[in-house]
Specification:
356 residues, alpha/beta, Nucleotidyltransferase, domain 5, 2 domains, seven-stranded mixed sheet, five-stranded mixed sheet, 9 helices, 19% strand, globular
Length: 356
């Protein structure tokens, strides 16, 4: 019998400190520590994020190893997020991964954060550990999900990125279109901030939108060529709309909150789905996936399922626990790289900008 491949994954690209253990492609443990301190500042403060990572990294990794039931001596390799992300945050995860791998005398595997979001669709799960993820401040429900087959299109949407990616293989990916300015997740959070909703505002917009009228208010959609996106104009237009309406009625937002949230969410999702439909038509590919933090948005998930029925797509939506930043996606990417003997040396350094 061949020896099992056990990968420890470490994620620290932004404000979540995460560690996961995958054995032969199956998830054993996935632990995430959130950083609540950023709520009081209305957004992620890089210096505070890196300090919190320093505090969290050891207990999070220890918890993941304990929950997995493996011994650290059995770890085959350590995978870590090299980028893109906040440099201070990446430095903590990279430094720990390098030291841990050196201490165990095992290979080191670098992972592109955006590539990992896409490969999260291939995380295998063993029976009995479906809900084993430990999220220090909250737990998310999970749903069953099948793995896409190659080639497929993946709409990757988060607070920092919005891309349509043609995925031909685990490591053969081509960006067909991306945002030329702001990301969809940033548009959600900025809209929430304009309405004075607490950070992170994206999930709150999704929550309030559920009982609102998505057609109540109209917002301008940018006309961007090809498969690229732009959300800066939408953000500016939304801000002007709120300012104008509150000048006439100071209670406008509170009196129309659900309809405003439903309308701005509907607009953002229409922009995303329009480009995704165009990409599917141009490539003649009907296997469509979503990934990244915004893939947890119920409006986007529902729109994708609706389009599946309308256009005959076969769609793939990740479990909630694999949408937001997590280490399971880092570990599964590390697993596939381990199979290719794709390792890096101790001289590797994090990259704030790291192209797919």
């Amino acid at each position: 019998m061949s020896k099992s491949i056990i990968i420890l994954g470490i994620e620290s690209s932004c404000d979540d400190t995460a560690a996961a253990v995958i054995k032969d492609g199956k998830l054993l443990a996935n632990v995430v520590a959130n950083q609540e301190i950023h709520r009081q500042y209305g957004g992620v403060v890089p210096e505070l994020a890196s300090r919190a990572h320093q505090q969290n990294i050891i207990p999070v990794v220890d918890s993941a190893i304990r929950k997995s039931g493996i011994l650290k001596e059995n770890i085959s390799a350590v995978a870590f997020t090299r980028g893109p992300g906040l440099m201070g945050s990446l430095l903590v995860g990279t430094s720990f991964a390098k030291a841990f791998a050196m201490g165990l005398n095992v290979p080191l595997i670098e992972v592109n954060h955006m590539q990992a979001h896409i490969l999260a669709h291939f995380i295998g799960e063993e029976s009995g550990i479906k809900n084993q993820e430990s999220r220090i401040n909250s737990q998310q429900p999970t749903t069953n999900n099948k793995q896409p087959s190659f080639p497929f299109l993946c709409l990757t949407v988060s607070g920092g990125h919005t891309q349509i990616v043609l995925v031909k293989d685990y490591f053969d990916m081509t960006v067909l279109g991306e945002t030329i300015d702001d990301a969809a997740g940033e548009a959600f959070d900025k809209a929430a901030k304009i309405m004075l909703l607490p950070y992170p505002g994206g999930p709150l917009i999704d929550k309030y939108a559920a009982t609102g009228n998505p057609l109540k208010f109209k917002f301008t959609k940018p006309q961007i060529p090809e498969l690229n996106f732009s959300f800066s104009g939408l953000k500016t237009g939304f801000m002007n709309f709120i300012n104008n309406e509150t000048a006439k009625n100071p209670n406008f937002v509170s009196e129309n909150l659900h309809d405003i949230c439903a309308s701005i969410q509907h607009t953002i999702i229409e922009i995303l789905m329009s480009k995704l439909k165009k990409a599917a038509f141009q490539t003649n590919i009907n296997h469509i996936a979503i990934a990244g933090g915004v893939s947890a948005n119920s409006g986007l998930r529902n729109a994708l399922k609706q389009t599946e029925t309308e256009l005959g797509w076969k769609t793939f939506i990740p479990d909630f626990q694999f949408c937001t930043d997590n280490a399971a996606m880092i570990a599964i990417t590390g697993y596939f790289k381990f199979m290719k003997n794709d390792f890096v040396s101790q001289s590797t350094a994090p990259l704030a900008r790291y192209s797919l």
